[in-house]
Write a structure and sequence with these properties.
alpha/beta; Rossmann fold; 8-stranded mixed sheet; 13 helices; 25% strand
Length: 405
C-alpha cells in the first residue's frame, strides 16, 4: 500500500446510509500514509457527524462552499488544487446526477468541477435507483469523462431489498485507490531525474545558487515510480524526503551533478533534467572566508558544463527531456533551447517572485518537435503524473518509429 503514502486524498461524503463506512475508509487511508481531508454535503451530515470525521482525519471537515477562512473565500479552488485524488464515498444517486450535469451548488460538487485530478466515485443507493435508466445514463457520462466508478456491490440493503447498490467495503476501496496510482506506463524503464539547485562555492561559507526547491523534480520521480519505472534521482541541496522506492544521489555543485549524471546516463532509457543547474561558477574559490574590506568586490565567473546537452549528444542517448524556467518569452526561449540542445522534449514554466519556485503549484507548457500541450495551474504532483504520461507516450512513439523504420 506504499503508493498511498503521502498522497493527498479528498474523501467526499454525500447523503446515504452508507456514510457510516466513510469513517472506516478515512481511518484506513490515513493508516496507509495518505493525507486525508473530508468534504461533506449537508445531507451527509444527517447520517454522520463532521466531528467523527474530524477526529479520524485529523483535520477540520469542510462543508461550506464559501469559506471565509479560506484564501479569497475560495475554498473549493484551494482544495481542488490540493488533491491527488478525489474519492466520493458514498456517492448517492442525487450526487451522481448533479456531477454528471456539471452542477456546482455545494462545496463537494464545486471541487469536482474545479479539479483536474483523478476523480473516483463509490455509488451507494437502492437497487432500483441504481438500475434506473437515468442513473445508468449518468454513469455512462461520467465514464466518458474518465471518472473511475468503484462498484457498487451486490447484497442486502438497508431498505430490506437485495441487489446491486451497496457501497464497496473500505478494504476494497483502499486496494482500488492504491491501484489508481499505478499506471504501468514505464514498466521496465530506467528513468534518471535531476532536481533542485546547485551551489557554487565562493569561499567556505558563501556560494552562488538559485531559488529552486526541487519539488517538481521530486514529484516527477514519484510519478515515474507509480508508472512502474526504476528511478534514480540526483538531487542538489534540498529539504525534501526521498519518495518511496527511489534511488537518491545527493550532490552539491554543478560539477558533482555532471559526474553523477554521466555515471548513470548510459544505463537509463529516459533522462528528465528538472534541476536548476548553475550556468556559472566562481573562477576561484577562496580557501578562507573573504573579509569585508573594500566598497566593491569583483567576482570572476566561468561557465559550467552543459549537462543536458552532453546527455543528448551521447552515442546512445536516452529520451531526453529538458526544463526551461523563464520570466518572459516562455515558448520562444523554450523551443530555442530544445532545438539548440537537440532534446526530444522540453517543459517550460513561468517563474518569478511568487511563481514556480518553492511553490506547491505550477503550470507547464510541454513542447516537442511537432507538438505542444499546455497544462493549466495545478498541484505539482498532479502535473507530474500528466507529464509522465506524455513522456511515456512520446518515448514509446519514437521507439516504435525507430523499430519499424
Amino acid at each position: 500500500m506504499d503508493t498511498l503514502y503521502n498522497k493527498r486524498i479528498i474523501v467526499g461524503i454525500s447523503g446515504s446510509i452508507a456514510a457510516y463506512k466513510s469513517a472506516e475508509l478515512t481511518r484506513r487511508l490515513r493508516d496507509a500514509g495518505a493525507d486525508v481531508r473530508v468534504v461533506m454535503t449537508r445531507s451527509a451530515m444527517e447520517f454522520i457527524t463532521p466531528l467523527t470525521l474530524q477526529a479520524l482525519s485529523g483535520r477540520a471537515v469542510h462543508t461550506e462552499l464559501m469559506d471565509a477562512d479560506a484564501e479569497a473565500a475560495m475554498g473549493h479552488i484551494e482544495l481542488a488544487r490540493w488533491a491527488d485524488l478525489i474519492l466520493i464515498a458514498p456517492a448517492s444517486a442525487d450526487f451522481i446526477a448533479r456531477l454528471s450535469g456539471g452542477h456546482a451548488n455545494d462545496l463537494l460538487s464545486a471541487i469536482c468541477l474545479a479539479s483536474q485530478t483523478q476523480l473516483a466515485i463509490a455509488p451507494a443507493m437502492n437497487q432500483a435507483m441504481w438500475d434506473n435508466a437515468a442513473t445508468q445514463a449518468n454513469i455512462a457520462t461520467l465514464k466518458q469523462r474518465e471518472v473511475s466508478i468503484l462498484g457498487p456491490a451486490q447484497g442486502s440493503q438497508a431498505c430490506g431489498e437485495t441487489g446491486p447498490g451497496r457501497m464497496l467495503e473500505p478494504e476494497q476501496l483502499l486496494k482500488i485507490c492504491n491501484n489508481l496510482f499505478q499506471s504501468g506506463l514505464m514498466s521496465g524503464q530506467h528513468v534518471l531525474i535531476t532536481a533542485g539547485p546547485t551551489r557554487e562555492p565562493i569561499d567556505p561559507v558563501r556560494y552562488i545558487s538559485n531559488r529552486s526547491s526541487g519539488k517538481m523534480g521530486f514529484a516527477i520521480a514519484e510519478a515515474a515510480i507509480e508508472a512502474g519505472a526504476d528511478v534514480t534521482l540526483i538531487a542538489g541541496p534540498v529539504q525534501l524526503d526521498t519518495p518511496e522506492r527511489v534511488t537518491r544521489v545527493d550532490v552539491e555543485t554543478a560539477s558533482q551533478m555532471q559526474q553523477a549524471v554521466l555515471k548513470h546516463a548510459g544505463a537509463c532509457d529516459i533522462f528528465i533534467a528538472t534541476a536548476a543547474v548553475a550556468d556559472y561558477r566562481p573562477g576561484l574559490q577562496a580557501v578562507n572566508k573573504i573579509k569585508k574590506q573594500a566598497d566593491e568586490m569583483q567576482l570572476k565567473l566561468v561557465k559550467t558544463h552543459d549537462i543536458l546537452a552532453a546527455v543528448a549528444a551521447l552515442a546512445k542517448a536516452p529520451f531526453t527531456v529538458g526544463f526551461a524556467a523563464e520570466t518572459d518569452k516562455l515558448l520562444e526561449y523554450a523551443r530555442s533551447k530544445m532545438e539548440r540542445k537537440n532534446l526530444n522534449m522540453i517543459v517550460a514554466n513561468p517563474v518569478g517572485p511568487t511563481r514556480g519556485f518553492d511553490q506547491d503549484t505550477n503550470e507547464l507548457d510541454i513542447l516537442w518537435p511537432n507538438g505542444h500541450i499546455h497544462l493549466d495551474l495545478n498541484s505539482k504532483k498532479t502535473l507530474a503524473r500528466k507529464l509522465i504520461t506524455i513522456i511515456a507516450e512520446r518515448a514509446h512513439a519514437i521507439d516504435t518509429t525507430e523499430n519499424t523504420g
